[in-house]
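Replying to the earlier thread about multi-chain prediction with a worked example.

Input:
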Amino acid sequence: MITILSDHTRQEVGERLDKKLREQKIATEFISLTDMNVGPCYSCGGCTDKTYGQCIHRDDGDIILPKLMRTDVLVMVTPVKWGSYSFKTKRVFDKCAVIGDRHYYYKNRELVKGKIGRVHTFVAIGVKDQWQNDEKSAFENLVAENIKIMNIKGRVHLVDDSNISVFLDSAAEDLNQ
Amino acid sequence: MKKVVIINLSPRKKGTSMMLANRCREFLSVRDYQVEILHLYPNLKNLSALMAAINEVQSIIMVGPCYINTYPADTVYLLEELEKNRDVLHGQDLYGIIQGGMPYVHTHESGLKMLELFAGENDLSFKGGFVIGMGAMLNGQPLDKLLNGKKAERGFQHFLENVVKQENSSSELYYQAQLKMPGMVYYLMAKMMNRKIDKERRGKGIGDQVKRPYDDTGIN
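Result:
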């Protein structure tokens, strides 16, 4: 299963990618963050104590996190602000720690953490009207660190108006494999 | 007297971010600075107190935890709101401090890059920051309790001197301060921490391969 989590603010790349994948008969779950209300992680420790493995606060994370636990490939489509994920996307990402493997692993001479649910591949798609080089490298570095710490496979795509059609074709082919 | 505002980007009012915020306050307040610490989370619904404070100061220090390789989501919200209220930004110095569980600088450094890019677009002068690993393990205790306590203390002290002088603070300070251990030590650390996690789970009556609560919610 491929799950596409998309913050639609100023972009429709996620929706178009989902449509393309469905046309190719690839099973997807599409989650739009537009009407979702996910609260902050308050670092209260409830998910490792009173409500082990579950956030103590009730919000739309209750809808999103069970879906993420069932997915093999997580695709996050996000507007990029200052080389980082959008606010809405990051709220969900912050809460993913709840469903992440708490154990530590040793890889390339460093400590890393475990996967989110059973996700084996993480694909981050950053969307901007126009990319500056320093913001490109900032977002690429951030996603590379995310992939490293989750100890999974993954890649990053940088999308803008000039490359969206080419991107959709290549991403759909990539995900199909 | 110069003014500085320290913004606690952590949802916790006690913990490593606040320990570092208090360290900044103690250092600066005896060096001719008027210092105020403000917490982001209690002000999320109304940021006017933060906006007003930022408008008044010469320097801003943002200190917070690292959640999945950068500051928490609500830091992005704060920056977006500051961008909407750009009249409060008029060339102030901006410093960042980020602390996270992993011992490596590279794991957390993206947070500082975000502040740098934000400052560049919004009439602030980003002057560097400090990255501290193993912050979760520290859990609010003083820096000298870290395995690399002496180096971290020395580097952080140097960073604070940069803040006092409103100078750029080099990333070399936190790179030099980071814990450097042979791979075998990290391997053993992983084993030790995993044993602790599993023991804790068993103590709560939860097996190692338990079905996750979200599997049972029936919500989807």
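DSSP finds ten helices and five strands in chain B.

Feel free to reuse this layout for your own posts.
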